[in-house]
């Protein structure tokens, strides 16, 4: 399972605009299946894009409920800003307890700000300890990476493999007129060299680096191998708001466009 996995929603009956005796409200109901998750859930976030709203004396509020066993349990309430944007809820505990997550979103004083909204559930996996790290420790490779955090370039003089900032501006790049938001984002890129045993992505890269160094030293019968290359080892998705072919606003996750981590491979 990728580091951040969007789970598609299955719409349940009863969604739309409802009302009570005192306050009108919009209601969205959806179900997310978690049975396809290959690894234990490390974290879960429910995200929803809401439209911009008018200035009101009392701001709109969005409440999230989980539904099960004939009961409804409120998890959180969020005030909605006037500007359009993402609203996020942490649903990790609820996602870990069930094979399917049934949710209900109720928005008061919204004025149809949820019209056409599609809630997304994003799962992050629990990091498993990798054999290559045990191997590197056993062999005493002091520069082998032992943590899951990205190695960012500290300055322009860094020569070893690291993650460098690279801002993408859709307007300046051209050809992305259909994208509404974001106007720009940080995509990052990987640069730098890969000395033997440094920031290796796997045991194969570890061995390849050793063989490359031994061949350079002129060790007899040592095969020739190029040094490992600095490349993205983890990528994440970018949520974008855009117009589709019919001119309607859609929310889509553009997969594998943000570099989260660089390693030598």
Quick synopsis:
The protein has 265 residues and is mainly β. Helices cover 12% and strands 43% of the residues. It has helices at residues 92-97, 131-138, 170-173, 203-216; strands at 4-7, 10-11, 16-19, 24-33, 41-50, 61-68, 71-79, 85-90, 100-108, 120-125, 162-164, 167-169, 179-181, 184-186, 189-191, 230-243, 249-264.
Biggest β-sheet: count, sense, barrel? 6 strands, antiparallel
SSE order, one letter for each helix or strand: EEEEEEEEHEEHEEHEEEHEE
In the CATH scheme, what's the topology name of the largest domain? Answer: Cystine Knot Cytokines, subunit B
Tell me, briefly, the overall form.
Answer: elongated
Task: Specify Rg, calculated over alpha carbons.
Answer: 24 Å
Which structural class is indicated by helix and strand composition? Answer: mainly beta
β-strand number = 17
Distance between the termini: 20 Å
CATH architecture of the largest domain: Ribbon
Q: Could you name the CATH class of the largest domain?
A: Mainly Beta
Mean pLDDT: 75
Topology summary:
Elements: E1 4-7, E2 10-11, E3 16-19, E4 24-33, E5 41-50, E6 61-68, E7 71-79, E8 85-90, H1 92-97, E9 100-108, E10 120-125, H2 131-138, E11 162-164, E12 167-169, H3 170-173, E13 179-181, E14 184-186, E15 189-191, H4 203-216, E16 230-243, E17 249-264
Antiparallel strand pairs: 1-10, 2-4, 3-4, 4-9, 5-8, 5-10, 6-7, 6-9, 11-15, 12-14, 13-16, 16-17
């Amino acid at each position: 399972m990728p580091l951040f996995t969007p789970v598609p929603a299955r719409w349940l009956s009863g969604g739309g605009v409802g009302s009570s005796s005192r306050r009108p409200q919009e209601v969205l109901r959806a179900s997310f299946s978690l049975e396809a998750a290959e690894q234990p859930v490390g974290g879960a976030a429910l995200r929803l894009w809401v439209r911009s709203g008018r200035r009101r004396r009392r701001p709109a509020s969005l409440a999230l409920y989980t539904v099960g066993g004939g009961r409804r349990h409120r998890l959180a309430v969020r005030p909605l800003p006037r500007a359009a944007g993402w609203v996020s809820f942490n649903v990790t505990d609820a996602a870990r307890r069930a094979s399917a997550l049934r949710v209900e979103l109720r928005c008061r004083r919204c004025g149809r700000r949820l019209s056409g909204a599609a809630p997304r559930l994003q799962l992050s996996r629990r990091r498993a300890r990798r054999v290559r790290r045990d191997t590197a420790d056993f062999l005493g490779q002091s520069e082998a990476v032992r943590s899951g955090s990205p190695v960012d370039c500290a300055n322009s003089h860094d020569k070893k493999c690291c993650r460098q900032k690279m801002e993408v501006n859709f307007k300046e790049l051209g050809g992305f007129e259909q994208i509404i938001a974001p106007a720009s984002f940080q995509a990052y890129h990987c640069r730098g060299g890969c000395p033997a045993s440094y920031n290796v992505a796997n045991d194969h890269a570890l061995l390849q680096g050793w063989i490359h160094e031994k061949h350079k030293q002129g060790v007899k019968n040592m095969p020739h191998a190029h040094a490992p290359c600095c490349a993205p080892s983890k990528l994440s998705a970018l949520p974008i708001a855009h117009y589709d072919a019919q001119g309607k606003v859609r929310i889509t996750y553009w997969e594998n466009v943000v570099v989260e981590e660089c390693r030598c491979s």
